[in-house]
Amino acid sequence: KQTLIEVRDLKKYFKVGKKQILKAVDGVNFKIYKGETLGLVGESGCGKTTCGKTVMGLYPATGGQVFFDGVDIHGLNKKEKKEFTRRAQIIFQDPYSSLNPRMTVADIIGEGIDIHGLYKGEERKEKILELLDLVGLNKEHSLRFPHEFSGGQRQRIGIARALAIEPEFIVCDEPISALDVSIQAQVVNLLIELQEKKNLTYLFIAHDLSMVKHISDRVGVMYLGNMVEFATSDVLYDRPLHPYTKALMSSIPIPDPKEEKQKRRIPLEGEIPSPINPKPGCRFAARCKYATEACTHETPGLREVEPEHFVACHRVEEIGE
Ligand code: SF4
Q: Which GO terms label this protein's molecular function in UniProt (predicted)?
């Protein structure tokens, strides 16, 4: 397997007022292999979106490194940065606000082509029509404006815009959260189809656990700025080991209770604590029924508890499945 992205001890802190520090991402490590989808899940405020934006260089990292094809993106010069933005793109959560309302669909999709000088004249026109077709829209749509489209269609325009400059890597930042449930699967299936056709690599960030399972090869679970569990999608959903992941997975509704083994729902009690000046120790301790004294002062690191399955919990062996 070839690594496309490597994130090492990534930190992104924000200053809040004069003395407070919000540790949105606090020492996260992972790799994304070429052609795979890495899912990132967790409740809102866990840092997954900040993580995606820092990986894209949209936020400068407070600490740590992000390597794209072996090169640290935070040390790029202007020219190299432009090349990186051609090879790596982001699709945003809100298809309503991420498209310029005064631009036609053709201009929205063509903008990146122009910035990077990829195609001109007739070739440019053809490329735009080809992209519309690729995402399931037709050529009559090219001269219309974003407000004339539904949420699902707008997200298709956003996908066409990202694909226009032929990237290798796309951060999909909650691409389906703002869409009707009936449309969500269509957009996810389109992303899967495009990945196969174009050999794309995705970082797929979402809080819909079923959709993440459907699209991802491997999944990381974030909690309050930390990665608490990381495994292949099948293993993580069938056999979660971290107490937080167990609770999260037990909340997924089972489509047909007769066919699948009935899972016991584990309640997730209490609110997610504030990421401002977090307490030392395991960040999940305040909500964890297995917490001991040691958990409140020693921060657990991610450990490989079985091949390709990483868990950050002091007591993972005692808790069992
Ligand atoms: Fe719970 Fe302790 Fe494990 Fe954290 S380290 S998840 S508090 S048992």
A: ATP binding
Domain ranges of the chain: 3-319
Q: Which of 101, 23, 15 is nearest to 299 (CA)?
A: 23
Residue 173: name the closest of 276, 275, 44 by CA. 44
| Residue 71 CB neighbour total at 10 angstroms | 12
Ligand 1 centroid, distance to 314 Cα (angstroms): 6
Ligand 1 mean position, distance from CA 300 (Å):
8
Its ipTM equals: 0.99
- Residue in this structure with the two tokens 């309050």, named with its chain if needed: 224
Task: Tell me how far apart the alpha carbons of residues 208 and 152 are, in angstroms, rounded to a whole number.
Answer: 16
Span 3-319: which CATH code? 3.40.50.300
C-alpha 299 – ligand 1 centre gap (Å):
9
Q: What is the pLDDT along the chain (321 residues), one digit of tens a residue?
A: 999 999 999 999 999 988 899 999 999 999 999 999 999 999 888 999 999 999 999 999 999 999 999 999 988 999 999 999 999 999 998 877 889 999 999 999 999 999 999 999 999 999 999 999 999 999 999 999 999 999 999 999 999 999 999 999 999 999 998 888 889 999 999 999 999 999 999 999 998 898 999 999 999 999 999 999 999 999 999 999 999 999 999 887 766 656 555 567 888 877 778 888 888 899 999 999 999 999 999 999 999 999 999 999 999 998 876
